[in-house]
Amino acid sequence: MFDLLPKANRRRKPRRRLFALIPLAAVFVFSDCGLGSSAGTADSRSGVFLGLPVNCRLGDECFVQQMPDMDPGPGVVDPLCGRASYEGHDGWDIRLRSLKDIGRAAVVSIADGTVLRVRDGVADRIFDRLKDSKLLGGKECGNGVLIEHANGIVSQYCHLKQGSIAVHSGTRIGKGERLGLIGASGLAEFPHVHLSIRRDGIPFEPLTGRSLRSGAEAFGETTGGLFEPSVQSLLSNSPTAILDFGLAKTAPELPNLVRDGGPPLVKLSEPIVAWVWAINVEQGSFFRIRLLDSDGVPIVNLQTRALEGRKANYLAYVGGKNGARAGVYDLRVELFDGTRTVQSTAKSFEIGQ
Q1: Residues forming a β-bridge with 241
Q2: Do 7-235 and 241-351 come out as alike in CATH topology?
Q3: 20 to 30 A from 1, CA-CA: which of 119, 199, 309, 346?
Q4: How large is the average pLDDT for residues 244-257?
């Protein structure tokens, strides 16, 4: 994804991108994964503490969708010893829910540095592999910024919003200063910023503090990370998240959620469908969806089947039989991994006369 760098510096491993909008299980070759030895941690080069590349509340306004693939071979392992990646992926993808959210979250520099290159003028759109592949013209990164930092570190920020780039080549930039806005330019199947890092010209993963060519010893070991402690802690959390949920008259579709956000609230007398959209849902997980009417009577009380495979994007819904009456409806959605509650959220919806 480093298409702002000279071609000679690009990683040469062939890549393929998970089609993230399709809720079907992809077929991967998984690597054995265990915690690396602390004796083999990376040299943190005292004084290098990287910040978060976005100015938004992680887990609320923006979300980690994908991480770098730590396995240099055909396997797929993310820095946390999980599967939130795909083969050859070299960066952190921090997303917004939908195109409607573009413009609400800034992309910022992870450290002091000097801007080497910028690109703007690429339109924001959800990439369609069948229709848009020939339109990229080598601009998979879309609108982006390339920054040189101290200690041999170079960072690149891709898929920024068209017209939002706030810097130019040669600009001295401070840590946390705005570069642009999260967008969906280039090869973007959802609105996000893709942060890639090189150290001394080698693809590098900052949470573990290791090269992406390190192999098995890099899996799960984060004590040598280069992020500042608060960011290190945030990014070490599970990327599983409920993005949105609600009540509609029909079941929503994932592509429409990514483009337009959640569907309109169900109206009086229309069938009620309760729905939930989540990302990075692990194998064996299930949802409980409970909907109470204005009298406190349950009209939906469902536990979904445990997932047979991991889902990068997952949509569950239930209902469609009861016509909506005027009143306040209480919807609670819980996500479980076995007996453990991963996330629980609730909201009230008022349906008028």
Answers
A1: 279
A2: no
A3: 309
A4: 96
Dihedral Cα 186, 190, 193, 195, nearest 10 deg = -90
Predicted confidence at residue 169, as pLDDT, reads 97
* H-run or E-run covering 313: strand 311-323
Give the per-residue pLDDT at 40.
35
Strands, E assignment, 51-209 = 54-55, 63-66, 75-76, 91-95, 106-108, 113-119, 143-148, 153-160, 172-173, 178-181, 192-199, 202-205
Q: Which of 69, 66, 88, 89 is nearest to 79 (CA)?
A: 69
CB burial readout 279-292, b (16+ within 10 A) else e? bbbbeebbbebbbb
Residue ranges per structural domain of the chain: 7-235, 241-351
pLDDT at 304 over 90: yes
Compute the Cα dihedral for 133, 139, 144, 145 and give only its sign: positive
Q: Is the pLDDT of residue 39 over 60?
A: no
Residue ranges of alpha helices (H) inside the chain are 129-132, 229-235, 254-260
Higher-pLDDT residue of 215 and 97 is: 97
CA proximity to 97, closest of 246, 230, 238? 246
241-351, CATH topology level: Immunoglobulin-like (2.60.40)
Q: Are the C-beta atoms of 25 and 310 separated by less than 8 Å?
A: yes
pLDDT tens digits for range 139-159? 899 999 999 999 999 999 999
Most confidently predicted of 19-23, 38-42, 203-207: 203-207
Q: For the purposes of burial, counting CB atoms within 10 Å of the CB of 187, is it exposed (0-12), middle (13-18) or buried (19 or more)?
A: buried
Q: Which residues pair with 317 in a beta bridge?
A: 275
Percentage of residues of the chain with pLDDT beyond 90 = 73
The overall average pLDDT reported for the chain is 86
How far does the chain reach from its first CA to its final CA, in angstroms?
A: 52
Q: What is the reported pLDDT for 29?
A: 37
CATH classification code of 7-235? 2.70.70.10
Helix, strand, coil shares of the chain, percent, nearest 5, are 10, 40, 50
Residue 163 has pLDDT above 60, yes or no: yes
